Amino acid sequence: MTLPIGFKELNALLPGQVKANEPMARHTTWRIGGPADIFVEPAGVKELARLVTWVHGRDLPLYFIGNGSNLLVKDGGIRGIVVKIGRAFGKVQVQETTLIAGAGAMLGVLAAAAQKSGVGGLEFATGIPGTVGGAVVMNAGANGSSMADLVQEVMVMDLSGELERRNAGELGFGYRTSNLLGSSLVVLEVTCRGVARDPDQIRADMEQYLARRRASQPLSYPSAGSVFKNPPGKTAGWLIEQAGCKGMRQGDAQVSLVHANFIVNLGRATARDVQLLIHRVQQLVYERFGITLTLEVQVLGED
Ligand SMILES: Cc1cc2nc3c(=O)[nH]c(=O)nc-3n(C[C@H](O)[C@H](O)[C@H](O)COP(=O)(O)OP(=O)(O)OC[C@H]3O[C@@H](n4cnc5c(N)ncnc54)[C@H](O)[C@@H]3O)c2cc1C
Fold first, then answer.
1. Which pLDDT belongs to residue 16?
2. For 236, which of 45, 99, 103, 261 could close a Cys bridge (C-beta 3.0–4.6 Å)?
3. What pLDDT is recorded for position 152?
4. Beta carbons within 8 Å of 150's beta carbon, 6+ residues apart
5. Residue 57: per-residue pLDDT
């Protein structure tokens, strides 16, 4: 197989951190996705800066991902470079009620550290399987709270490798969105302000949220969580169920029998299966309610 354009140079620049034709199914919680031409997991900030400055000025698309828990990567894969912000960016610190986390830290790890130190605020995040970076970009939320309630500032890197701090007011937070989504900035570090709270009470809330998730979400199959955003005043899950879509199947993709806003991968689902199912759900909900469901999951790649 021929090596993708730029692979050799990048491999020399970042030894051991670059892969060619990497199946994205390995990097998404849906376990779906064709190959990325080039996949990089930088070993640190210096290496990331080297990478982005190398890409800058070359005509190569660049995508940043975290844990791939909100991503649908199409079967044809991704032309360009995918950069995973992972373990090398996973440091978590608690200073009084301030939480400072690398963007690659798992949200659950940060929530557990906060609990141990008696810092409340992140209880809602229990069970969200994303990185802190992905959670900020998506303004992840549950149980009536979201990242926007806690985030004070983020450190980002631009395509010239320059670091910049942005405060919460500059991030354009909205329902499952921020202005970082689709921008060329990569999030490296997030500072959150929590509140002092009894660790036992924090733990009790976290356990309750987790129990609720286990009872209401299909956690034994690969998925990307909620596929659609909730339209104003309604939940997407209710609309989908009322439109008769629960259990509907395309190949190995199925509208979950447990939670209708989840599409689960029963084994060998393709992105095409998921896309067809998404389309049918949208059609049926529109026919029944006149509402167009919009996607919460981010779609990358080509057919
Ligand atoms: C079982 C399950 C339950 C879920 N429950 C919830 C829930 O309750 N609430 C909720 O909000 N979500 C939920 N999700 C969805 C998902 O976990 C969140 O959206 C999460 O915040 C995504 O983080 P990630 O690291 O996986 O990001 P990814 O999926 O890797 O990326 C998501 C987006 O963020 C961008 N991005 C990621 N990291 C960076 C970075 N460092 N710099 C710049 N851009 C970046 C990507 O380009 C992409 O556009 C659930 C998912 C699953 C599978």
1. 95
2. 261
3. 98
4. 99, 121, 122, 192, 193, 194
5. 82
| Cα(8) to centroid(ligand 1), Å | 30
- Smallest CA separation from ligand 1 atom 46, residue: 65
Q: Ligand 1 atom closest to Cα of 176?
A: 11
Question: What is the layout of strands, in order, in the sheet containing 35-40?
Answer: 18-23, 35-40, 78-84, 62-65
**Which protein residues touch ligand 1 with a CB less than 6 Å away?**
29, 63-71, 85, 103, 128-131, 133-135, 137-138, 140-142, 176, 180-181, 186-187, 217, 219, 223-225, 298
Let me know: does 44 contact 77? Beta carbons within 8 Å. Answer: no
Structure tokens at 33: 């996705």
Whole-angstrom distance, CA of residue 24 vs CA of residue 56: 23
**d(Cα 123, Cα 142) in Å, to the nearest integer?**
9
Q: 89-215, which class in CATH?
A: alpha beta
* Token couple for 64: 């940043």
How large is the average pLDDT for residues 205-230? 97
- Cβ neighbors of 135 (< 8 A, separation 6 or more) are 66, 107, 125, 128, 147
Residue 176 annotated among the catalytic residues of the structure: yes
* CATH number of this structure's domain 219-300: 3.90.78.10
**Which class is 7-84 in CATH?**
alpha beta
Residues of the chain with CATH 3.30.43.10: 7-84
Task: State the closest ligand 1 atom to the C-alpha of 29, by its place in the atom list counted from 1.
Answer: 53
Could you say which of 41, 153, 176, 223 is catalytic? 176
